[in-house]
Specification:
14 strands; alpha/beta; five-stranded parallel sheet; 44% helix; 378 residues
Amino acid sequence: MRVFVLAVLAVCALAQVAVAADPIKIGAVVSVTGPASFLGEPEKNTLEMVQKEINAAGGVLGRPVEVIIYDDESDVNKAVLATEKLLKRDRVCALIGATTSGSTLAIMGKAEAAKVPMVSMSAAEKIVNPVKPFVFKVAPSDRHAAARILKDAKAKGYKNLAILTVSDGFGQAGREVLKELIPAQGFTLTADEVYGPKDTDMTAQLTKIAGLKPDAIICWGTNPGPAVVARNRAQLGIAVPLYMSHGVASKKFIELAGPAAEGLKLPAGHLIVASQLPDGQPQKKLLMAYTAEYQDKYKSPVSTFGGHGWDSLRLVCKAIEDGKSDKPADIRANLEKIAKFPGVGGVFTFTPTDHGGLDENAFELIEVKGGDWKIVKE
């Protein structure tokens, strides 16, 4: 019996060593520091949290998942270098990232060339339109966010709209969609102003816009710029309604904008208003559980952007499980087959002609009231 027990222990030890030595390696390029850290930090936190959950439950295909995370410091060039390292040195089977649209657009060609599937956490429509075989994304598209804003603008009877967009990848992708949809839906584009990612004062653009007397203004960007726009609008006493994009759907925007955020509307995922959703909503149970776990572990509010980390890793792992393979080509093929998968950002269905996986239903129109997010009742 003693020999038998020792033999069993030896086999178990060897099995543990084999499993530990053979992880499924998934790479991630995340803006943990730098100007986009308010997006990237919750993404990194969530990736690490989900990795631990998956491994505690036995891993994927009986193997542990190892997420190799590199911080691009919110710098496009560093995102490119990190991607090359993950693909060439770490030999990852799938890539998650980048945090920002500009960095995603810079690295996705490398994933395509290496034939390694990449799931972006960025929103720009051109990431997946036209479809690239190995590139997917989990952030809802600019087009759906813009459509949600314009639906409210039409209901309010607005006719003339002004846009103010940041000159980075996210802002200009949104600008292209707005310039297409505004006239297509019967509105008049009265002003098209742009600001730089590092600009700290937008009073010149706002003064020009106000002089053209639009019915509403749409600002498209990620923090800190939109918060500056909100404060400058209040300082100038401009009463024209101001919409923000989904790029500011985190409490950080309310903190940065302060009282100037009050009353502003924007499209956002269901996560930040999960408790306000009706029971039976397909995501609510997941969203409430994710919120509780994240806030308990990191002592900070959840954000839509952290949810992109949850969706990216869970979708890659589901594709591996469904195909019973961690070969990049198999992961790509099985990502394309995922249907009706409830995630943090929405219910995902990918097809050969749709690598975005979400539609306008991924968004709620929300408003800042009393320093918090509230669903706009229609």
